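RECORD TYPE: inverse folding
INPUT: structure tokens
STRUCTURE:
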């Protein structure tokens, strides 16, 4: 997604059942490409978006259950 990651994440946080986020989609935290992203930065930003929109955050266990994935390990 690259530069479109933030707007797409905001739309997903507003209306989709989940939000995909991570370094595999975007290596930069800002559009000017001055600040390299970390997964933690990207996840925290989506959490902030969800909080602003009043959307709850699923735990990893809740997501695995929703996707029908068995417990790993």
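DESIGNED SEQUENCE:
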């Amino acid at each position: 997604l690259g530069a479109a990651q933030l707007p797409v994440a905001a739309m997903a946080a507003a209306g989709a059942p989940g939000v995909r986020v991570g370094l595999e989609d975007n290596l930069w935290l800002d559009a000017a490409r001055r600040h390299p992203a970390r997964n933690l930065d990207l996840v925290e930003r989506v959490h902030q978006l969800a909080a602003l929109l009043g959307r709850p955050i699923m735990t990893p266990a809740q997501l695995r259950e929703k996707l029908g994935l068995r417990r790993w390990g």
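NOTES: Residues 18 and 69 are 15 Å apart (CA to CA).
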